[in-house]
């Protein structure tokens, strides 16, 4: 269901993103530049605002710059496809952005004396990186690993919804969202390891 929603979102955004992508390419801006700029924008929103408790401003900035994930990919396709370095850079910048978001949320919750919420944020940060690593390692070994209940879009959506509910007065919402996300991320690691294990069992040893 989550992947169906993701595909639908990409389709809906394409009519807006494509004209912007064409304009940027005509201006000589590369997809890699957009990738880095988007990451910097997310870090500004997270470290500059979320860490200080300005959650609404942070949420707006992060959502706007997170959309560059659609933009740089669209630009790459218009240029004939992503390069190997472009794919590497995009994945690396995603990890940097995730660290900024969850690290800032942990800092904010620590400042609110919500130690358990802080622990949940740090768990989301650590396990989320493992989720991504397992996929990258599997693909590096020539296997697929595009499975799991809590992939990156779901992780960002979860913390975003939790932050939004906190803004409107439900102070428990962000820690609750983080604990749920931490649990789902652990499940996702297990799903990915099991998926790779099944593939490995069918391969003939060298």
UniProtKB/TrEMBL annotation:
Catalytic reactions on record: 1,2-di-(9Z-octadecenoyl)-sn-glycero-3-cytidine-5'-diphosphate + 1D-myo-inositol 3-phosphate = 1,2-di-(9Z-octadecenoyl)-sn-glycero-3-phospho-(1D-myo-inositol-3-phosphate) + CMP + H(+); a CDP-1,2-diacyl-sn-glycerol + 1D-myo-inositol 3-phosphate = a 1,2-diacyl-sn-glycero-3-phospho-(1D-myo-inositol-3-phosphate) + CMP + H(+)
Residue positions binding a CDP-1,2-diacyl-sn-glycerol: 32-35, 73, 77, 83
Pathways involved: Lipid metabolism; Phospholipid metabolism; phosphatidylinositol phosphate biosynthesis
Binding annotation for Mg(2+) 2: 69, 90, 94
Membrane-related topology note: Multi-pass membrane protein
Needed co-factor(s): Mg(2+)
GO molecular function: transferase activity
Active site: 94
Protein's name according to its UniProt entry: Phosphatidylinositol phosphate synthase
């Amino acid at each position: 269901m989550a992947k169906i929603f993701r595909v639908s979102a990409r389709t809906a955004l394409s009519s807006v993103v494509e004209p912007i992508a064409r304009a940027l390419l005509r201006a000589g801006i590369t997809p890699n530049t957009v990738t880095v700029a988007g990451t910097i924008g997310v870090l500004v929103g997270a470290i500059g605002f979320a860490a200080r408790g300005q959650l609404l401003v942070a949420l707006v900035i992060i959502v706007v710059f997170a959309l560059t994930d659609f933009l740089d990919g669209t630009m790459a396709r218009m240029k004939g496809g992503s390069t190997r370095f472009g794919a590497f850079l995009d994945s690396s910048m995603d990890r940097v952005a995730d660290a900024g978001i969850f690290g800032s949320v942990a800092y904010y919750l620590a400042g609110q004396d919500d130690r358990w919420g802080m622990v949940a944020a740090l768990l989301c940060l650590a396990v989320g990186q493992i989720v991504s690593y397992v996929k990258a390692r599997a693909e590096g070994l020539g296997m697929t690993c595009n499975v799991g209940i809590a992939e990156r879009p779901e992780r960002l959506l979860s913390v975003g919804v939790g932050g939004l509910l906190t803004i409107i007065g439900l102070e428990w919402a962000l820690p609750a969202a983080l604990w749920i996300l931490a649990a789902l991320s652990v499940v996702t690691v297990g799903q990915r390891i099991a998926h790779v294990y099944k593939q490995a069992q069918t391969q003939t040893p060298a």
